[in-house]
Amino acid sequence: MSAINPLPLPQAPDVQQRPQPVAPPGPPGQPRKPGAGFTAGLCLVASLVTALAMWALANRGVDTSSGSGASSQARLAVATGGELLKSLRVGGTIETLNYAAIRVPQLRGPRDSGRADLTIMSLAPAGSIVKAGAVVAEFELRWLVDHIEDRESIVNRAQSNLKKRIADVQILKETERQARVTARAEYEKALLDLRTAEVRSKIEAEVLKNVSEEALATWDQLEDEGRIKEAVHAADIRGEELIVREEELHVNRHVRDLKRLQVKAPLPGMIVHESLFNKSGQFSQAKEGDQIYPGALFMRIVDVSQMVVSASVNQVDAQSIRIGDEAVVELDAYPGEQFRGRVVSIGAMASSGSGGSKYSRGKPGAFIKHIPMSILIEDRDERILPDLSASVDVRASDRLKGVLVPREALRSADGEAASFVYVRSDGQFLRREVRVQDVSDTEALIETGLQAGEEILLGGLPVSTEGY
Q: Nearest CA to 122 among 133, 137, 140, 143?
């Protein structure tokens, strides 16, 4: 068999690749979005720049050789010499040292006046300044004036009755005296007749004897009756005198009430109206035309020349306050204004705090005691009025002297009771142990370890950097 040669395969024609379609350009004005790789690269570069900047700021000025960088960042203070001012802040209310409480007059006259309340006819306006003796309130007077006139006529009638009774008693006493004189004369005549009994018969003598005894008995009886009638007449006259005296006292009490209905200021000062419970069941200040009950407090006259702050202090803090300590008074109504003050009184008895009562257990303030105190405001200012709230900084009188530094400059290591400060010396900050004698809210008094004029570090460097 002859071999059959296969036919050669045809070659594939050259295929040209088709070009990739290009995205049409976007609308004008809209930038093309960057790729995700480009964005990640930008973020990485920004992070590296930020980290380098933070590292540079953190290590800026740490060069201990020059100290210029540290001084630009650290806060410094200079130790000074002087007195340590310790103050204690308390809150209270403005009151007056001298004042007069004005109440509705209580009438002392008998019940026949028929008045359970009084009507205000005139009233001094609140806030006005009055002098001592000026009329600040006046109540209705006409009814009392009429009543006094009626009672005075009764007094005159009682006095006339007394005089008439005295005259009648004098007539009775004279009649009784004449009867006693007549009885005595009859007795004396019977005695003279009895002397003639010797020349008379026995019967006539017996008759004369009986007549004399009868005359003596009659005289004795009239004498006894006269003594008894004297007491009766004296009691009768005394009863009339008491009636007159009672009516006179009646009138005198009403006359005093008439003076009380015109209320006068016992001292010079400012008028302050008080709120009271009226007949409509509400609290309000009294005004002209109101009817208020006797004894009600409706006004105060305050001496504005001497104002005090009435406050209370904790029993522990009270140990550091003495009478005469200086104080700075600030009014909540006028922020920033300060007035000079002085402690004038401290209470001897402590009272329970307002946070709890003596019967409560475990509540806040149950065992906290407060002591009342008064601070006299020495500055005169017309803005200082009663009932304003105030805060007082009481400064201790026994002030210690020495080296003073800000309290924030003191530092202490963990577990150590000793204090130390960082003192600047030759561009470096050196740690130095100090002994603190006393501290206030803002300053510390250094007993040893520091001198006035030295610069100390307040802040700005790490606390743990002890190598400086």
A: 137
